[in-house]
Design brief:
Layout: H1 2-8, H2 14-27, H3 32-56, H4 66-84, H5 91-101
Helix pairs in contact: 3-4
Length: 104
């Protein structure tokens, strides 16, 4: 986004959309096995962004420690996959969980 802002000389609403489109197209250059892992990582961030957007628009009530609840839900999904469907985890996510949990 900073590159687009500097290149265009203005900070407008189109910059985040253009940056997102470029990032989304770059995923197509990744190997197919890594795309799923990147999708899992991006889903967490997208969930966080949607939650805060909905808070700004007053579409959802303010939940005390709502960020922490979202983090717990996403982490519980990863732990479930690690415990029951380990073959669905790949790459850095799997190695980080094995390191953190001691290869249970």
């Amino acid at each position: 986004m900073c590159f687009l802002r500097n290149m265009r000389g203005e900070d407008c609403e189109a910059n985040p959309f253009l940056a997102g489109a470029c990032s989304g197209l770059w995923v197509a250059c990744e190997p197919p096995a890594r795309r799923l892992e990147l999708t899992r990582i991006a889903f967490k961030d997208a969930l966080y962004i949607c939650y805060h957007w909905a808070l700004e628009k007053n579409l959802v009530p303010v939940v005390p420690h709502g960020d922490t609840i979202l983090f717990c839900l996403s982490t519980s999904l990863l732990f479930y996959l690690y415990q029951n469907r380990r073959d669905s985890l790949q790459g850095i996510v799997k190695s980080m969980l094995e390191f953190a949990l001691g290869g249970m």
